[in-house]
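Changelog-adjacent note: as of this version, every example in the card shows the full chain rather than a window. The one below runs 275 residues end to end.
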Amino acid sequence: METKAIADIILQRLNEEKEAIAKQFESSRQGIGHFYIDDLLPEPLAKSIYDAFPEKEKMVRKKSLREYKYVAAQMDAYDPLLEKAIYAFQDERIVSFVGEICNIEHLEPDENLYAGGISLMAEGNYLNPHLDNSHDKDRDRWRILNLLYYVTPDWEDDYGGHLEVWPGGLEEPQITLHSRYNRLAVMATHKKSWHSVSPVVAEGERCCVSNYYFSKQPLREDDSFHVTSFRARPGEKFKDFILNTDAKLRMLVRKVFKKGIRENPHQYKKEEETE
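Full-length structure tokens:
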């Protein structure tokens, strides 16, 4: 199945649930705007996308105090279906439709898959509360929306690996958006959109196709540039001190080096760009 055909199906499903998902986003807008939609793709196609995922040993392992997961953005190294699925979400009709649902104008997809692509989390993996980097790789556009499509069949709610949003900050209880099979979750990103992924506590691998949408304008007027900033979970005071200090130091570096000391390797280097 080609990219446009996958996009056609996604667009039809979004249309079917337009009113419901628009209400979800509007009701959560004042905190961290979000919505989710189940049964996004026909089951055989969703299962094929899951089956196309590489073994985690063939992905990039990211393990630190901040996070523990596996990611990949160099999509020409993997099954072509994965690349088609990712870029289906970048179809201009879908970008425009999601913008309409969220009442956000001038959204743009990210061809370079900066921090996007695919991710996999296995038993023991986690993602601590954090704010995403506010901009794209060139620090030219603002990061506005995060689209996460989950494709692991029979992933139960008690397995962990779920998206958590913290609209009241880390001092208030989080909202859990379960990473159920064939579910698309969309959340807003801004300087207060703290989110995390709960630790995976079961055997198996929670697989996800991810995209970001950007814009020349920030989502909130008071938004300001920030690096990806991690914190600890409530009650982990020493870890929180370390992670908070780490974020502050990296912000100091970015005040001197606008685009960082080195290029972020998590992006899709297409063949014509490397020739």
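Structural remarks: The radius of gyration is 18 Å.
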